[in-house]
């Protein structure tokens, strides 16, 4: 009887923890190392100015940093374009971590397009809830918030704007890392109970994390939009501008996911479901890489750049 009870207990624990992932220790180490290496080689100047600046200039037809946001229309257009231009910034690396968990929702050839749109819709819902709320707050009190400041960084000191970025992205990075650990079975799934009644709860939460990028984002074009929304004193304009900024941030990723689901969804689903632990492994790797990168980049590397700590390894082209 004791043996039967123990066997049943193990089965219950296995069901709660999800499918077993083979070589999970190695996956954890390699994923964390990949996130660390990404912080070493990442060049914010190249991505922000060359990639993002080129995209924004091409779409707007002029230098985005010289844009005069003189009306609601020009401001909303700038919001979307600057969000699109910021797709590949350091803030948005975490967006890639949201793609793998959604792939598990696309598991049938029938209605593949509709199935792809459903998880994207839940992602947008979580994202919109945060970006609209924060945009409205900025429209009301933004001129007194740390992000409004244009003060230049001072060596050995952390400005209020920098602290806000560190706290925001530190929390986002740790949250993604924790979800990655739970996918590997090292920690309990925080959404295990809620997902029984609401299967898309983790996708909504990923959207909340994406919307949270705006709370700490130092991207120059976003800060330009932030100041415009803050000076407008209009919470409705702030909410709509920030929503468009977030939509622009994830549009490319959403299109890639949709195309992947539409053209290769059946094969991808078959490959993932062939091994019970494969989906968990893919999800864990993307979340751990994104989480480690986000935390180290915004909470450790930035301390070295501000000369608060003596050193952090940075590639010559990224220094």
Layout of SSEs?
Blueprint: H1 2-17, H2 24-41, H3 44-60, H4 72-85, H5 93-96, H6 99-103, H7 112-141, H8 160-184, H9 192-197, H10 201-211, H11 213-216, H12 220-232, H13 235-274, H14 278-305
Helix pairs in contact: 2-14, 3-4, 4-12, 4-13, 7-10, 7-12, 7-13, 8-14, 12-13
List keywords for this structure.
globular, disordered N terminus, 319 residues, mainly alpha, 14 helices
In short, what is this structure?
72% of the residues lie in helices and 0% in strands. It is an all-alpha fold.
Roughly how many Å apart are the termini?
64 Å
What value does the Rg take, in angstroms? 21 Å
The overall pLDDT, averaged over residues, is 81
Q: Ranges with pLDDT <50 over ≥5 residues?
A: 1-16
Helix run count:
14
What string, H for helix and E for strand, traces the elements in order? Answer: HHHHHHHHHHHHHH
Major pleated sheet: none
What is the SS-derived class?
A: mainly alpha
Shape: globular
Relative strand content: under 5%
The count of DSSP E runs of length 2 or more, i.e. the number of strands, is: 0
């Amino acid at each position: 009887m004791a043996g039967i009870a123990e066997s049943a207990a193990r089965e219950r624990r296995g069901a709660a923890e999800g499918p077993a992932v083979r070589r999970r220790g190695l996956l954890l180490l390699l994923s964390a190392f990949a996130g660390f290496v990404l912080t070493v080689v990442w060049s914010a100047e190249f991505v922000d100015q060359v990639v993002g600046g080129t995209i924004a200039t091409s779409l707007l037809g002029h230098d985005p940093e010289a844009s005069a946001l003189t009306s609601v229309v020009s401001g909303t257009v700038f919001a979307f374009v600057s969000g699109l231009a910021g797709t590949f910034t350091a803030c948005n690396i975490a967006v890639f971590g949201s793609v793998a968990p959604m792939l598990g929702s696309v598991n049938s050839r029938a209605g593949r397009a509709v199935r792809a749109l459903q998880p994207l819709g839940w992602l947008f819902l979580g994202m919109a809830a945060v970006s609209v709320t924060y945009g409205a707050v900025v429209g009301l009190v933004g001129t007194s918030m740390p992000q409004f400041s244009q003060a230049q960084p001072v060596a050995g000191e952390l400005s209020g704007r920098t602290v806000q970025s560190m706290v925001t992205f530190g929390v986002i990075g740790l949250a993604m890392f924790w979800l990655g650990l739970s996918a590997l079975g090292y920690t309990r799934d925080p959404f295990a109970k809620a997902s029984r009644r609401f299967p898309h709860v983790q996708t909504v939460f990923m959207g909340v994390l994406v919307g949270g990028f705006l709370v700490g984002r130092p991207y120059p074009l976003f800060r330009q939009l932030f100041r415009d929304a803050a000076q407008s004193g209009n919470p409705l304009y702030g909410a709509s501008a920030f929503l468009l900024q977030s939509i622009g941030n994830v549009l490319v990723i959403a299109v890639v996911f949709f195309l992947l689901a539409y053209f290769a969804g059946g094969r991808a689903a078959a490959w993932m479901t062939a091994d019970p632990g494969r989906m968990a492994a893919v999800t864990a790797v993307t979340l751990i890489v994104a989480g480690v990168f986000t935390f180290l980049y915004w909470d450790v590397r930035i301390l070295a750049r501000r000369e608060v700590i003596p050193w952090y390894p940075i590639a010559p082209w990224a220094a």
